[in-house]
Amino acid sequence: MNEYRTRLEAARRVMDAQGVDALCLSVGSDLPYLTGYRAMPLERVTMLIVPREGSAHLVVPGLEAPRVSVPDNAFEVVGWAELDDPIATIDGYLGEAETVAIGDETWARFVLELQHAGPSRSYVGASDLMAELRMVKSPAEIDALRRAARTVDTVVDEMADVRFSGRTERSISRELIERTTSLGHDTMDFWIVASGPNGASPHHEPGDRVIERGDAVVVDFGGTQDGYCSDTTRMFVVGEAPYGFDAAYDVLREAQACAVDAVRPGVTAGSIDSVARDMITEAGYGDLFIHRLGHGIGMDTHEHPYIIEGNGQVLEAGMAFSIEPGIYSPGEWGMRIEDIVVVTPQGVERLNTSDRAYRVVD
Amino acid sequence: MNEYRTRLEAARRVMDAQGVDALCLSVGSDLPYLTGYRAMPLERVTMLIVPREGSAHLVVPGLEAPRVSVPDNAFEVVGWAELDDPIATIDGYLGEAETVAIGDETWARFVLELQHAGPSRSYVGASDLMAELRMVKSPAEIDALRRAARTVDTVVDEMADVRFSGRTERSISRELIERTTSLGHDTMDFWIVASGPNGASPHHEPGDRVIERGDAVVVDFGGTQDGYCSDTTRMFVVGEAPYGFDAAYDVLREAQACAVDAVRPGVTAGSIDSVARDMITEAGYGDLFIHRLGHGIGMDTHEHPYIIEGNGQVLEAGMAFSIEPGIYSPGEWGMRIEDIVVVTPQGVERLNTSDRAYRVVD
Q1: A287 contacts: CB under 8 Å, gap ≥ 6
Q2: Which residues in B lie closer than 8 A to residue A303 (C-beta atoms)?
Q3: Domain containing B88 — which CATH number?
Q4: Angle A266-A272-A273 (CA atoms, 0-180°, nearest 5)?
Q5: Beta-carbon separation of B105 and A103 below 8 A
Q6: pLDDT per position as a tens digit, A194-245
Q7: Contact assignment for A125 to B109 by CB distance below 8 Å
């Protein structure tokens, strides 16, 4: 059976289990996951309506309709003209649905308009429903993630031969972008280059700071290749590491390795966070590890499962996520090591395999 | 007074007039318009809460907080840690607010969570409120739009010397992107290259079709420069125009010119649409003009006011929008001419000034 038909049927089974009568998806990756079509983020609404039984309909602006291809008659396309009321059309396809799950990234405007059009319906978030479908990747999806990971690993290796000192963070980030897209990424999604004290801000935006000898530089970047995302972090040290860096780095590297080794089916996402956090805390750096351990990855850079304290989600083979502990010493330096891993029936596969030692550069 | 303080005060005046107790803004351009800060589209929520009286608060993920700069103490930054409940924090800042306006592009997930946290509040869309603020541009904003328009005009002129025949649409679109970014655009937002029969689909995605002699090619592209958007469409004809093209083009060009000339303070947006539509209809092409005449432009490519039949919005000096009639002959060709214009106290200024005759290329 066609992949999208299979996914739509799986969606209906989850709807059944969760007591959801209809599923509404708009912008974001949920829609292309189920249909192959990505909606433009526009004031003209696009919405897929999947009832628990009966046909699914994709309501799209007439101007976009020619861009939709329908795999194996999996759904019907309904184009709306400029003077139509698409909200009334969508509400019509919802029929007798009482509980309607709506995609996470749908614009507030359309949620409010739908609630107004059908005040007796109960709208709920589609997060759990879509996570149930998207969290466990197919072999083809894992292969796409593997290819994306290989690209950024190659870039990391190339960057080890690049001169850092005397250049701005922005210049290094531009080089990252160029190398990654020329090696096959379709888009870049983020490109963090955080040097010296800037490294202590995990999401630092590369700026005009000139990198100098003695800087530790956090390089964290990723993008999309054939629809699936990459995300890796490696450390670069210009000449010599700053005071206190090496001792912390040994702890970080060991914690990252142990967290990866702990990944296998049947354990919780939260328990993996604890493995790294406990080791970093015992070494005295606990207060400097200020974020969760990781996040799921697939068609989105951040998706379920989130590797965070208290998350009782049980890991299953096929789940893919980052393991990225960090230690941030304000005013001095920051460090993070990040790999994407996939849960296998036996344990774990690292998709990023570039050297995790920090690279000493000029 | 600081620009952002001025805008926040203007927002409070409109809230007062519209009976809105609090304004909540997240992803999209509304937030940077009021604060200078653009939220990352993330599962970690960012939200500005502006009560009608009292301080505004920007609730942001702790990891993003270092990236926020606060102009003139216009608002307070509240970072939330990984295990906090930011929805409870936001709901707390809403205090006694009964009617809460929420930004158009806010993720559905957060709207539903806020409704759940404060079920007695009434959430409404912030479209009208923000349109009231953003529709009339300041001289500095118009200048930014003018600079962005100048860039794409230059690219159009350059493209007139480029060979089209024998190349794919995708190849031409890549060249458009390179030229536009190298001339100063920070990002490209869209790049339509629609050749021959593909031109009949207004939002055609450039593909593998090889352009040949006798093709008319719709080139419609735009991006962002210093935070403000460009958007222009010009026609390129390879060698000789296809059958029926020239007669229709004369009508289109005249209709576009007359619609622009009709722009002035005091007339409605809908009346401008009618000027072009009536002329095209009288010439017998009415059924082939299948979209509205235009859209507002500013920090977003598409914003208020929409130049569409029935829109009673009265034009005021400082409003900026596209005038882009098109004629689409299915299976044959398509054509569109698009300029960004600004309403002036006396009438209208065209920001795009490149030649509107179609360019004959090899």
Answers
A1: none
A2: 43
A3: 3.40.350.10
A4: 145
A5: no
A6: 999 999 999 999 999 999 999 999 999 999 999 999 999 999 999 999 999 9
A7: yes
For residues A302-322, average pLDDT: 98
* Helices and strands, number each (H, E), in chain A: 9, 18
pLDDT tens digits for range A252-289: 999 999 999 999 999 999 999 999 999 999 999 999 99
Q: What angle is formed at CA B162 by the lines to CA B172 and CA B208, rounded to 5 degrees?
A: 25
| Identity of the residue in B108, B202, B291 whose CB atom sits nearest the CB atom of A103 | B108
Which residue range forms the structural domain that includes residue A307? 139-361
Chain B contact set for A39 (CB, 8 A): none
Residue B120 banded pLDDT, cuts 50, 70, 90 = very high
Choose among A82, A109, A110: nearest Cβ to B292: A82
Which of B134, B163, B197 is the C-terminal boundary of a domain?
Answer: B134
Do B127 and B157 reside in the same domain of the chain? no
Answer with the one of B90, B112, B134 that is the final residue of a domain.
Answer: B134
Q: Would an 8 Å CB–CB cutoff place A105 in contact with chain B?
A: yes
- pTM of the predicted model, to two decimals? 0.94
How far away is chain B from the Cα of A45, in angstroms, using its nearest Cα? 12
Report the CATH number at residue B258.
3.90.230.10
Q: Enter the ipTM.
A: 0.94
The domain tally of chain B equals 2
Could you give the residue ranges of the DSSP H alpha helices within A183-242?
none
B253 and B234 Cβ atoms separated by less than 8 Å: no
